[in-house]
Specification:
Blueprint: H1 44-52, H2 60-65, E1 67-68, H3 69-72, E2 76-78, E3 84-94, E4 104-111, E5 114-119, E6 123-127, E7 130-133, E8 141-142, E9 149-151, H4 152-155, E10 160-163, E11 168-171, E12 174-180, E13 183-190, H5 193-200, H6 203-206, E14 214-216, E15 220-221, H7 241-244, H8 248-257, H9 260-269, H10 272-281, H11 284-293, H12 296-305, H13 308-316, H14 320-328, H15 332-342, H16 349-352, E16 359-361, H17 366-374, E17 385-389, E18 395-400, H18 403-406, E19 424-426, H19 431-441, E20 445-449, E21 455-460, H20 461-468, H21 477-481
Parallel strand pairs: 2-7, 16-17, 19-20
Antiparallel strand pairs: 1-12, 2-3, 3-4, 3-9, 4-5, 5-8, 6-7, 10-11, 10-15, 12-13, 13-14, 17-18, 20-21
C-alpha cells in the first residue's frame, strides 16, 4: 500500500557538562542546545529549521576557521621550531563515538618512505599552508589503523553520504576541519562542482576552501560499521535520529539514489517496519534491482515484511527463476500466500488485494475484539474496518473500527450488523468495477470475497489508484531541482 536529509547548516547541540577532548588549538565554543523533545508532526518543519540554526557552520568564527582537507593533503608538517618532519598523508578521526562532529585523533605523516602517526595532543595548528606541531621534538610511531577510527582522505572523501536535512544522497568533494571545543573536528562537507574543479586545478588553488555548497556535518548520516583497517562505508549514528525524521517516501528516494553497498547498509539500519514502508514507496524498477542484488534469503526477509499485495507487485517485476529462488527460502506459509496471489491477474481484485486484513465472528464482543486487535501485528495501519462472518465463515457485515470505540465492551458484534448488504467485490472483479464500488459506497476499503462468499482479502482506495496507474514511478522533485 502506498505510504509514503539546508544548506549552510548550523551550531551543535552539546551538553554543557560534556568536557572538551583531545587536540590543541583554542576554539570557538558553541552554545548549549535545547534538549530534544518529541514533536507533533505539524511542528516538525519548524523544528528542523531551528535545528539547522543551531549547527556549527552557522557560527561565523567556525566558518572563518575552516581548513580544506583536500588542500592540506600532501602539505608540510613542521615541528614547533619550524623544521619540516614530513608531509601530510591523511587525517584520522574518531568515528564510533556519540559526537555529532567527529574529532581529529591524529595525523598520518609521510616521513621518507614511512607512514608515521602523530596523535591529536601533538597538534598545535592546522593551517591552509601546512600543519604545525606543538613540540620541537617528536617520537614518531608507525601508523596502524585502529577500531572506531577512519582516515578522512582515504575512506570518506569522494564517498557517498546522506544529507538528512536535504533528503538527498551526496558525494563529498571536500571535507572541512575547524577548531571546536579545544580540538580539531570534522565540521562540514562540500559537494560543489567548483570544489572539484579547485582540486583538479593548479596547486595554488587547492589550499583555499570554496564553500559555496557546504553542508554542516551535523546534517550528515554516514553508513556502515568501522572495522579495524577497513573502509567505513560510513556509519549511521547509533540513535538514527536523522533518519527517524524521514517519511517512507523520503527513505525510498535515498534507497534509489544510493549505490549497492550503501543502500544495503541503510536497509540494515532500519527496523523491519521502516524498511518495508520504504520499499513499498520505491520505483518498481529500482525495487526489483534492489531485490536482485540482495542475497535470496535477505530478499525473502524484506518481502516477508512488506504487505502481501506490495510484495506480490515486487515479485511480478522479477523473472520466474528469480521469484522461484526467493520463494524457496521464504517461510512456507508466507510463500504459499504470495504464490496464491501471484496466480491472479494484476488487473483483477485478487491480484491487488491484501490478505493482511481483520476477520471477526459475530458472536464475539466489542471488548473481546478490541483485546485481540491490541495484540495483532500483521495488519496495516490503514485498515478501517473488520469483516464479520457467521458460523460458516461467510461474510455478514463490514464493521467500521469506530464502532469499537462508541459501543460498550459487552456488546455482541451481531447486534452491530446493519440492514444493508455488506460492501464486497468478487475475487475476479476488474479494477474499474472495484473503483466504482468504492465510490458508490463512499468507503475507504472494500472486502474481496470468493464464490462462496468467504472473505479472502481487502482492497484499500490507494490500492485501486496503484492498480489504475501501474506505471506509478514517483517524480523525484528534489533531484529535478538539484
Amino acid at each position: 500500500m502506498a505510504r509514503r536529509l539546508a544548506r549552510l547548516p548550523l551550531l551543535p547541540t552539546r551538553n554543557a557538562t560534556e568536557p572538551p577532548e583531545g587536540g590543541g588549538a583554542g576554539a570557538p565554543v558553541a552554545p548549549t542546545g535545547a534538549p530534544r523533545t518529541a514533536l507533533h508532526p505539524t511542528a516538525r518543519g519548524a523544528a528542523r529549521r531551528r535545528q539547522r540554526s543551531q549547527r556549527l557552520l552557522a557560527n561565523r568564527a567556525v566558518r572563518d576557521a575552516i581548513v580544506s582537507l583536500a588542500g592540506i593533503i600532501g602539505g608540510p608538517v613542521r615541528n614547533q621550531a619550524g623544521a619540516e618532519i614530513g608531509r601530510l598523508g591523511d587525517v584520522v578521526c574518531r568515528w564510533s563515538g556519540e559526537e555529532t562532529y567527529p574529532p581529529v585523533t591524529g595525523l598520518v605523516v609521510k616521513v621518507g618512505r614511512r607512514l608515521a602517526f602523530v596523535g591529536a595532543a601533538a597538534i598545535d595548528t592546522i593551517q591552509h599552508n601546512g600543519i604545525v606541531l606543538a613540540s620541537a621534538r617528536l617520537d614518531l610511531v608507525d601508523f596502524a589503523p585502529r577500531p572506531g577510527e577512519v582516515t578522512l582522505f582515504d575512506q570518506v572523501l569522494d564517498h557517498q553520504l546522506v544529507d538528512v536535512d536535504g533528503v538527498q544522497v551526496i558525494r563529498a568533494a571536500d571535507l572541512y576541519l575547524a577548531p571546536v571545543y579545544g580540538r580539531y573536528s570534522l565540521v562540514g562537507v562540500d559537494i560543489s562542482t567548483a570544489t572539484l574543479l579547485r582540486r583538479l586545478g593548479p596547486a595554488r588553488w587547492r589550499h583555499h576552501p570554496t564553500p559555496e555548497r557546504v553542508i554542516d556535518w551535523g546534517a550528515i548520516q554516514p553508513f556502515g560499521d568501522t572495522a579495524q583497517g577497513a573502509a567505513p562505508e560510513v556509519r549511521l549514528r547509533t540513535t538514527n535520529e536523522g533518519l527517524e525524521r524521514l517519511r517512507p517516501g523520503e527513505l525510498a528516494d535515498l534507497l534509489e539514489d544510493l549505490m549497492r553497498p550503501e543502500r544495503q547498509k541503510l536497509l540494515d539500519s532500519l527496523t523491519p517496519e521502516e524498511a518495508a514502508d520504504a520499499l513499498e514507496e520505491m520505483d518498481p524498477e529500482e525495487l526489483a534491482s534492489l531485490l536482485r542484488e540482495a542475497e535470496p534469503s535477505r530478499a525473502a526477509e524484506l518481502l516477508g515484511d512488506m504487505e502481501p499485495d506490495e510484495a506480490v507487485d515486487a515479485l511480478r517485476d522479477l523473472s520466474s527463476d528469480e521469484r522461484e529462488e526467493i520463494l524457496s527460502v521464504m517461510g512456507p506459509a508466507k510463500a504459499t500466500g504470495l504464490l496464491r496471489l501471484l496466480g491472479y491477474s494484476e488487473h483483477e481484485a485478487g491480484g491487488f488485494m491484501t490478505t493482511a486484513f481483520l476477520v471477526a465472528h459475530v458472536d464475539e464482543t466489542v471488548a473481546g475484539l478490541a483485546s485481540r486487535l491490541a495484540h495483532h501485528d500483521d495488519c496495516p495501519d490503514e485498515l478501517d474496518a473488520v469483516a464479520l462472518v457467521d458460523a460458516d465463515g461467510r461474510m455478514v457485515w463490514d464493521l467500521p473500527l469506530l464502532q469499537l470505540l462508541i459501543n460498550p465492551g459487552g456488546t455482541v458484534l451481531a447486534d452491530l450488523v446493519g440492514e444493508a448488504e455488506p460492501v464486497t467485490v468478487g475475487i475476479h472483479a476488474a479494477v474499474d468495477e472495484v473503483a466504482e464500488r468504492l465510490i458508490e459506497a463512499r468507503r475507504m476499503s472494500v472486502v474481496v470475497v470468493d464464490d462462496e462468499d468467504l472473505p479472502v482479502g481487502r482492497i484499500l482506495a490507494d490500492d485501486v489508484i496503484d492498480a489504475l496507474m501501474p506505471e506509478r514511478g514517483r517524480i523525484h522533485f528534489p533531484r529535478l531541482l538539484q
